[in-house]
Amino acid sequence: MHMSRRAVLGGAAAVSALPLLGTSAAHAAQGDAPYRWRNVVIGGTGFITGVLFHPSVRGLAYARTDIGGAYRWDDRRGRWTPLLDHIGWDDWNLLGVEAMAVDAAHPDRLYLAVGTYAQSWGGNGAVLRSEDRGATWSRTDLAVKLGANEDGRGTGERLLVDPRDSDVLWLGTRHDGLLKSTDRGVSWVRAETFPGTPADPGQGVTLLVAAGRAVYAGWGDGAPNLYRTFDGADWEAVPGQPAGAAARVPVRAAYDRHTRALYITYADAPGPNGQSDGSVHRLDTATGVWTDVTPVVPGGDDTFGYGGVAVDARRPGTVVVSTNNRWAAVDTLYRSTDGGRTWASLKESAVLDVSETPYLKWGGDEPKFGWWIQALALDPYDSRHLVFGTGATLYGTRDLVHWAPEVRGIEESSVRQLVSPPTGRAHLISGLGDIGVMYHETLTSSPSRGMAANPVFGTATGLAQAAAKPSYVVRTGWGDDGNGAHSHDGGRTWTPFPAQPDLAPSAPGPIAVSADGTVLLWTFVHWDGTKYAAHRSDDGGASWSEVGSFPKGATPVADPVDPARCYAYDTDTGTLYASTDGGRTFAARASGLPSGDGQFRLAAAPGRVGDLWLSTKWNGLYRSTDGGAVFTKVDSCWASYTLGFGKGAADYPAVYQVGATDAVTAVLRSDDAGRSWTRINDDRHQWGWTGEVITGDPRVYGRVYLGTNGRGIQYGEPV
After folding, report:
1. Count of domains observed in the chain
2. How many CA atoms lie within 13 A of 239 on its CB side?
3. What confidence tens digit (pLDDT) does each residue in 198-252 have?
4. On the chain, which terminus has fewer CB atoms closer than 10 Å, C or N?
5. Catalytic choice (66, 312, 379, 671)
6. Domain of 437: which CATH number?
């Protein structure tokens, strides 16, 4: 659905100052208890959609991600600093960064166009403005939607400081044409002379680039697909531009100021998926002559598009481009030193070192060079410092041969499950989107074993540990070679279940294991939301039987003490179901509890029989101490999104939740079984949407692990 023109013109609606970032977390801004927050280190783990070296400051660069905010490169420390961790719960949609811009004449200025989804349920986008390289921000809310996690998120940049006037900014949108600001991003109006007509759903403006004093705009919704302005007022289609499927969508562009050549990569779709054709073209901006300089023409079984492009600021005629969506032959970079007349692939000579992030071996022996390569950048002060983003990391080289991830400080995983074992080498096991399950022997370096193998999962859907037998752990997820596995050494090594239900490949859901490890309950939910019956195994997954009395699609929860008891919450009816025969049959107990499409989480307090907590998005917390026969409302909070337990200060475990006791959704800890709560995060550490999973450490009082949707696993400890 497109916004009306009136709504677009109202885009300067809200201007507000945002808090300081990058300072010590020892003193909470509004928190009740000072905590130190850090990432559990994995390294990268998400789609790097853009990298921007500053043209006039050595060693300064910025990176953007599709769901995990933006980062600033600290060249002295060799790591990235996150810039948007202050984004709060209500503004979760702003953690996706659609585009970045810097000002060559004012090195401390940084601009971000933020907004994760352009769907009707996503909020409007915003432009963030900083005068101190992202340490502090001002914000202008837009009346249009942006799509940092939509198709086309690797194109761009869609945001640009006008080369003639630092007060003028341009912002390309997906559905609302081209916007212009004449007050450094404080207010925005539609550029009425821009001729592009948005399609539905469409891509709109795919890129903005300065070429001398001219501004060029790529257009993803049909021919012509490249426009330019010389005066900032009148726009025209660029004459002679290439046509056909291989040049349908301009993906990225880079300008060589020495030769006055503009290089543009094209594909038949915006990507990162769905591309099967593409090309590279060079425009001589002085003469208007176009030249096809495509390194390799896609065709036959070798289909792909072209993605990133970068020019060497120190060496005229040196340009690098990337292929994208080239699954058969694997994506590569092509480098030319003669303006695109000849090219050399860099993949064949590449030596990859992923020792710092072993998960990039993807459960095998060798890492892949890359995929989803649309972010590509050359350091303007070092011709051999080249970086490119993938769907999981940012590779860099200083000699064009040896490559290693340059992702220290970047953590972008979407976290689905967390288990903190009471014993063993690891204090944490995690289940993640896209990169499966990790065994964290240490919190400060990437897991040495990489992704849990045998089988390897893409996205994990379930993770559970036998409470009385912590050496036994089970996991489920989306995998090509099996969808369930168990471990007898606390999660270090894994073996596939001997068998799995027929539903497992198409609808793997969460799993629970009884306290003694003898019974498994596996539920199934299709990606489209269709719910199926749970299945039970009492022989380690060798055989499975359907449990007809289990509420379809519910998440099973095992009692942590009594192996005969397990529970499930039916969100459709607001009813608690319980089993006392090891999951063979379930019967309804408490009813009349909150129901519907809201968020619910049922959890069992460790070390206690039948002590259940139910967190609900709109109605707060409920607790039962009799196995779910009766629930009592916990009146100390009005909203609760997820809940977990850790080592207590006294006899009862510490209770952790993401919830609200007042107007602010926060990370909370209770040391008195939920009678009162202490906020343990602060306004600088909010990470957008954090409602999926939280758990305390059963061995370390005060330590808590928090899953985010795009900023990895955060862990906090009292200062």
Report:
1. 2
2. 6
3. 777 789 999 999 999 999 999 999 999 999 999 999 999 999 999 999 999 999 9
4. N
5. 66
6. 2.130.10.10
* Phi, psi angles (nearest 5°) of residue 378: -110, 130
Per-residue 3-state assignment (H helix, E strand, C coil) for 474-489: EEEECCCCCCEEEECC
The two structure tokens encoding residue 170:
């341009």
Q: pLDDT per residue over 584-622, tens digit each?
A: 999 999 999 999 978 999 999 999 999 999 999 999 999
Give 362's strand partners.
none
Mean pLDDT over 43-69 rounds to: 97
Smallest CA-to-CA distance from 32 within 691, 688, 671 is with 671
Both 269 and 338 in one domain: the answer is: yes
Q: Which token pair is 686?
A: 């909010």
Alpha carbons 194 and 206: distance in angstroms, whole number: 14
Q: Residue 450: which of 46, 44, 42, 47 has the closest Cα?
A: 42
522 inside domain? yes
Q: Is 66 a catalytic residue?
A: yes
pLDDT given for residue 15 in this prediction? 32
Tokens of 421: 């074992």
Catalytic status, residue 434: yes
Domain boundary among 325, 343, 374: 374
Out of 268, 434, 559, 611, which one is annotated catalytic?
434
Cβ contacts of 654 within 8 Å, gap of 6 or more? 645, 646, 647, 648, 669, 670, 671, 696, 701, 702
Same domain for 430 and 328: no
| Contact in structure between 706 and 694 (CB atoms under 8 Å) | yes
What is the model's pLDDT at position 21?
A: 34
* 23 pLDDT tier (thresholds 50, 70, 90): very low
Last residue of a domain, one of 547, 569, 593: 547
Residue 510 maps to a domain: yes
- Residue 558 is classified by DSSP as E
Domain hosting 368: range is: 242-374
Pairwise CA distance, residues 668 & 204, whole Å = 42
For 147-202, the pLDDT digits (tens) are 999 999 999 999 999 999 999 999 999 999 999 999 999 999 999 999 988 777 78
Question: What phi and psi values does residue 514 have, to the nearest 5 degrees?
Answer: -65, 165
* pLDDT (0 to 100) of residue 268: 97
